[in-house]
Amino acid sequence: MRIHYVVTSLEGGGAEFIIPDIAKVIMDLGHEIHVFALKPRDRLTEPRLIEAGVPYTLLSDHEASKFGSIYRYAKAVRASRPDVIWTSLSQATRVGQVVAGMFGIPVVSWKHSSDAKAHIRRNQRRCKLWIADSRDVALYLEDSMGVEKDRIAIWPVFNPASPTTPIPRWDGTGPLRIGSTGRLHPQKNYDLLIRAVDRIRSDDPHIYDRLDVSIAGDGPLRDDLQNLITSLALQDKVRLVGWVSDIPAYLQSLHLYVQPSVYEGMCIGAHEAMAAGLPIVATPVGELRRSVQPGRTGALLGGDIVSGIGAAIRGFIARPEMLKVFGENAREYVERTMGAGAFAANGAEVVRRIEHDVLKGRVRPAAARAIEPDVASRSRARSDATGRRPPVVTGTD
Q1: Strands annotated E in the chain
Q2: Which ranges of the chain have pLDDT less than 70?
């Protein structure tokens, strides 16, 4: 089976960052996958694709319009027709649906959060199979988008790493290191985390003095969040550390993880923190409403999120031993429910459903497929010059 995996961009978000792991499952099952990104953005996923040996094409080297993306991707499909188009994220799903309809190719699509734009709702029937990244998103597809159960598959997009060394526990002395990882986007509500620190300063100065808060990630709100930190004079307490390539090492530096998101699907960042042994303070969105168990793995935020974050921090400072208890419970929960082998097994079941339910066993021989000559030659030329496989940029607006 030849799969075109169409994603909106190569930025370093969770849905993009997990692509090499997804591709490995597909390739290990003997199938062919080629990633097509509509636009570059920060390109932080690109090194992971190169390292994993996943072939990919960057369709534009700048922000592309919907119609420009459709033109470029249609050209790629005409040159090398896939058996199925697999889309990830809203813009790529729009483009993939249109091009799939043009060529009569079945399309399957990821749903990564319990939120959908109007055009995705209207056109949900264009997808032969919707793949939910968590149980919560599967329920959203069925209840809110009207997708029938037999067109929904679940593949939790969290592939836990091997157990790491134990998290250094806070013993009540020194700074309490609080952090979060994620794209600096309105969805993540990081402004509320910053405002919670400001609220603690006015309400509990002695607790404020003990805090060290950092946010790892990049995105469109970086300047706005930095301006908020500066305007509140919190530079000594809250830091935007930017993109972090070694997430496990960053998590090892923390005592507590906070995720105040508006909506989520699986939320890879928070589950990585749980797997590392960190207690979680989070809003009850996506899979976090199940994973974050009050009084066991962390605290759920309801109502006034700013006040809730402050209350959770005060609770852990009053009883620092609970950081260890909750953290160990969090790690045990992830190992038990999402442990080794589950990611590959769930992926294999999704691929099986694509083969038998979407394609109904009709797959053309691999020998009949060819990559567009000018694309292949440009790819080889750049690879020869740099010693690694670079992106191929095709077409212009």
Answers
A1: 2-9, 32-39, 56-58, 84-88, 107-111, 129-132, 152-154, 176-181, 211-216, 238-242, 256-259, 280-282, 298-300
A2: 162-165, 361-397
Element housing 230 (H / E): helix 222-231
Pick from 44, 5, 9, 47: which is nearest to 27 by CA? 5
Would you state the pLDDT for residue 391? 44
Strand pairing class (2-9; 84-88): parallel
* Paired residues of 212 in beta bridges: 177
Helices (H) and strands (E) in the chain, counts: 17, 13
What pLDDT digit, counting tens, does each position of 274-302 carry?
999 999 999 999 899 999 999 999 999 98
> Do the beta carbons of residue 204 and residue 176 sit within 8 Å?
no
How far is 54 from 249, CA to CA, in rounded Å? 25
Q: What span, in angstroms and rounded, lies between the C-alpha atoms of 211 and 201?
A: 10
The secondary structure of residue 188, as a DSSP letter, is G
CB 83 within 8 A of CB 107: no
Give 2: exposed, middle or buried? Use CB within 10 Å, 0-12, 13-18, 19+: middle
Structural domains of the chain in order of their starting residue, each with its CATH number: 2-159+341-386 (3.40.50.2000), 176-338 (3.40.50.2000)
Q: Quick one: pLDDT at residue 364?
A: 56
64 phi, psi to nearest 5 deg: -110, 150
